[in-house]
Design brief:
- By secondary structure, this protein is of the alpha/beta class.
- The protein folds into two domains: about 220 residues, Alpha/Beta hydrolase fold, catalytic domain (Rossmann fold, 3-Layer(aba) Sandwich), CATH 3.40.50.1820; about 90 residues, K homology (KH) domain (GMP Synthetase, Chain A, domain 3), CATH 3.30.300.20.
- The chain contains eleven helices and 15 strands.
- The strands form four sheets. The protein has an eight-stranded mixed sheet, with helices on both faces. Strands 11-12-13 form a three-stranded antiparallel sheet, with no helix packed on it. Strands 7-8 form a two-stranded antiparallel ribbon.
- A hairpin with a 5-residue loop joins β1 and β2.
- α1 crosses α8, α2 crosses α3 and α9 crosses α10.
- The chain is elongated and about 85 Å long.
- The two termini are about 40 Å apart.
- The mean pLDDT is about 90.
- It comes from Patiriisocius marinistellae.
- InterPro entries: AB_hydrolase_1, AB_hydrolase_fold, KH_dom-like_a/b, OsmC/Ohr_fam, OsmC/Ohrsf.
- This is Osmotically inducible protein C.
Length: about 400
């Protein structure tokens, strides 16, 4: 994932701070906006991990801090649920101006509720996913305890949430009282809705998911996040959510499929005229891209051909070492094989520098083993590394038979 800082202004002219997460090996096929949970920020772990998972599936994801939170300007005390919805709309306007209008909205907790309201105000949005969202924004009052009465009676109060102090004014509650996710969900006008919720959610009960689901019209879907807690602190759970959203959204927004390349060979490469160095590869049943660095005219959407070759040597070495160790009953917790390619002078070459032709293809390989081995075992594993099939191929006499078809 490539991530860069961005800023944009909301309807009041306040500067909001965000990050734009992009896929590594391609241009984004669609853009999404992530609305973070109540009093969280764009850098909260669940936000980062879900966004990363979406980016790995080809989405560009804008995650930003609502007014008065994180790195965004403004006074949080003057914000409310409606201002969060308005911030989401301005985030969509920013993407439309600078990149491409968003087709997907994702919201976590109260951010999910805000996303439901914002979706009807963003024409480009075709799909919407909520994570642990309340069916009624007023639900957040429960987090205030007795301070809720202080706010109602005195007009404002300093409230500590998740270890941080916030000033809340009565207008925040007054605004919440006027909102209903159930009513907003019923007005999505054909936009697809995915509701993700954990039955173990102790902050926002799963009853809320049921109420939103029943209020919404089709197309609508529900996915249980069994075993997850409300904030999705566990990275595996957050990544799962991102993958599920990406897979589901592909039914409702245009996500290009990999170009199908048919071949009777094990590997095929395809390069169109307008793609520069960015080459589509089919390796067995797997697709990926090869490219060159930007400095030589490529897009850096994939490894270079020599990096792929070095990768083959690294992968084969690791597999061979682990296979041998298992056969011997030795436990290798992890093996790392670090490989670089260059053209160097031969190690046993006399007067090498007299001719450039004396240079040979050289792979520098370093192996890191994690496990309990004695010195004899370590030496044996080093010997086994040189017996990996790709190593043997690189050392053997080879031939390449080429024909035009």
């Amino acid at each position: 994932m490539k991530s860069s800082k961005i800023t944009f202004t909301n309807a009041q002219g306040t500067t909001l701070s965000g990050r734009l997460d992009l896929p590594l090996e391609q241009e984004p096929h669609n853009f999404a906006i992530f609305a973070h949970c109540f009093t969280c920020t764009k850098d909260f772990s669940a936000v980062r991990n879900v966004s990363k998972a979406l980016a790995s599936e080809g989405f560009g994801v804008l995650r930003f801090d609502f007014t008065g939170l994180g790195d965004s300007d403004g006074d949080f005390a003057d914000t409310n649920f409606s201002s969060n919805v308005a911030d989401l709309v301005e985030a969509a306007n920013f993407l439309a101006r600078e990149h491409k209008a968003p087709s997907l909205l994702v919201g976590h907790s109260l951010g999910g509720a805000a996303a439901i309201f914002a979706a009807s105000e963003i024409p480009s949005v075709l799909a919407l996913a909520t994570i642990g969202a309340p069916s009624n924004p007023v639900h957040v009052k429960k987090q205030f305890g007795h301070q809720a009465n202080v706010i109602e009676n005195d007009g404002q109060a300093n409230v500590t949430l998740a270890g941080r102090d916030f000033i809340f004014k009565k207008q925040f509650f007054d605004d919440l009282d006027q909102q209903s996710c159930e009513a907003a969900a019923a007005k999505l006008d054909g936009k697809a809705l995915l509701i993700l919720h954990s039955p173990q959610d102790a902050t926002v009960s799963i009853k809320n998911a049921e109420e939103i689901y029943h209020a919404a019209k089709h197309p609508k879907s529900f996915v249980t996040l069994d075993g997850s807690e409300h904030l999705l602190i566990d990275k595996k759970n957050a990544s799962y959510v991102g993958k599920v959203i990406a897979g589901w959204a592909a039914r409702y927004i245009e996500v290009p499929l990999p170009d199908v390349i048919k071949s009777t060979h094990q590997v095929v490469a395809s390069l169109d005229d307008e793609d520069g160095f960015t080459t589509l590869l089919k390796l067995g049943s797997h697709y990926m891209k090869a490219d060159e660095p930007v400095r030589v005219g490529g897009n850096d959407y994939g490894p270079t051909p020599y990096e792929l070759l070095a990768g083959s040597l690294s992968a084969c070495t690791a597999m061979t070492i682990q296979m041998y160790a298992k056969r011997k009953g030795w436990l290798i917790e992890n093996v790392e094989v670090h490989t670089s390619y260059s053209r160097d002078y031969a190690a046993d070459c006399e007067a090498c520098e007299e001719s450039e032709s004396n240079k040979i293809d050289t792979f520098h390989r370093e192996i890191k083993l994690i496990g309990d081995f004695d010195e004899k075992q370590r030496k044996r594993l080093l010997q086994i590394a040189d017996k990996c099939p790709v190593h043997k191929t690189l050392h053997s006499e080879t031939q390449i038979i080429t024909a035009l078809v």
